[in-house]
Amino acid sequence: MILALLKEVDFDFEEVFIDGNEELERAYGLRVPVVLVDGAEEFETRVETDLLRGALGGDANGGD
Asked: What is the pTM of this model?
């Protein structure tokens, strides 16, 4: 869903795997996926497309 949204809204995306990283496993554990926008946690375990689009500055109804 995030990769598809990249085609609509211009934003930087970095996927980080926490497996084997004790600090990240402690911080995020069973809450993955966790999505941060501008360093702030916006979503955990479930990401809603329209809400993420809005958090990224795109129109929540699908436009930019």
From this structure: 0.77
